[in-house]
# Entry
Amino acid sequence: MNMLTPSETILELARKIGVLRVRDLTSRGIHPEYLRRLCRQGLMVRTGRGLYMAADADISAHHSLAQAAKMVPHGIVCLLSALRFHEIGTQNPHEVWMALGRTAARPRIDYPPLRIVRFSGPGLTEGIEEHVIEGVSVKVTSPARTVADCFKYRNKIGLDVALEALKECRASRRCGIGDLWHHAKLCRVANVMKPYLEAMSA
# Structure
């Protein structure tokens, strides 16, 4: 049997799961010193507090989403960050917008910076997609759900952002009217969205 050295195990693990945390190593009985040596050798790089990647890894445009999901696996990427992920509109937030359950503890992390909102009930499960970014499973609200959320949180992000998202989502056919209505009702913004949806359907 070909046994890997601790350093080889770290590199293989990094290629397999993308973003590594120290706990990923300690849970396998590997001392963090091996990780520090690999960083000094230029084979691993520190991408955030307690987060590491292989130096030759492909870093995507959504790298901060992978980092956030690694740090907060129960979080859901939403609102401006979900718009950015789905390439809807012109928003380019410097924070990762992430939803948590009403009673979930607020994450204590320095990087990436998070903007936390709270979802509850069906809001935590309806219209949630799972995408793999840099080997990390990331929960993201679907295009239709994201648009409805933008109207729900229009006082936080601006009605202009919600309208831009709705127009572009419809123009690019990212989602149908039925899907939008479903999530508008779920988010209790059907009355707010109704005149805009009717105007676009006319």
Summary: The longest strand covers residues 96-101. Residues 21 and 50 are 6 Å apart (CA to CA). The first helix runs from residue 6 to 17. The chain has two domains: 6-54, 63-201.
